[in-house]
Fold this sequence. Notes:
Largest sheet: 5 strands, antiparallel
Shape: globular
Low-confidence stretches: none
Structural class: alpha+beta
Radius of gyration: 21 Å
Helix content: 10-25%
Distance between the termini: 37 Å
Order of helices and strands: EEEHEEEEHHEEHEHEHEEEEEEEH
Mean pLDDT: 92
Strand order of the largest sheet: 1-2-3-7-4
Amino acid sequence: MSHNSFGHLFRVTTFGESHGVALGCVVDGCPPNLALEACDIQRDLDRRKPGQSRFTTQRREADEVKILSGVFHDERTDGQRTTGAPIALVIENTDQRSKDYGDIRDRYRPGHADFTYDAKYGIRDYRGGGRSSARETAARVAAGAIARKVIAGVTIRAALVQMGPHKIERANWDWQQVDANPFFTPDAAAAAKFEEYLDGVRKAGSSCGAVIEVVASGVPAGWGAPIYGKLDSDLAAAMMSINAVKGVEIGEGFASAALSGEDNADEIRMKDGRPEFLTNKAGGVLGGISSGQDIVVRFAVKPTSSILTPRRSITAGGEETDVMTKGRHDPCVGIRAVPVGEAMMALVLADHFLRHRGQVG
């Protein structure tokens, strides 16, 4: 299986399966002399890990990260620092229940990657989806914590702005609310509605989708490159690579198709000797290059494919069958995709920062 690496100068290779011994990643290209302790990574992993509320999978994983290489504690410096060598991170799996998946060993779950993995490789790890499981994203979050160190000064935050058909009221947006509820939503009133809605979904043994918005503030103008190195194209690819994501938009995105040229243009004035954009329809990227405004990306996460309601499918032998998935699953996998979206934004920006510095100094 190829294509397990992401990025150019800041490059991440992930490994591991949902029910394997462990998963992790190797970060190549991290600059030296950055302060890095395991606790710096653990903070982000703790936001993503399962079993934190009744609205996520009840699989109990500590997701404790270990740094195996690429750091050194020099007595002349304050604490542990990166050396510039590859940084290897590992996270052990401790709460697998592979027996829950015995019934789907030879049956394909509709909406999941079971059929396509089998069609491509002729073999698949049916235990929790193996490599196609959202558990793989723990390694991305760990790598993203290191990427944040590379782009110190840039603030990356994400929030859940829609669950199923229910959207937040943007007038109620409060970033402090994001970590104050189990849905990572910035609208306290919406959080109460999400709770009632998702309880019904969960009790019915079904699932629902979500929309996540990721915002990066403090990115200077100039990151990214024209044509095939566009910042927004790399961001779109990064978000689309997250498990269960089926759509990505930058700034106004698809809504911009309904705007006039006058409404869509982000007008510019001078303020205190600096350019000031009056709106941000472009989402902080123009011509593939950052404008200095907030970079705004949204992505849509489909409903979890593993549900208790029987769905029509086929077996590996070509027989028609019904599939009902047992085990512990997120009724809305989009909830735990919030820190994953932040991590992917950080990985792309760290890579583009290094590419920008390498080209123009």
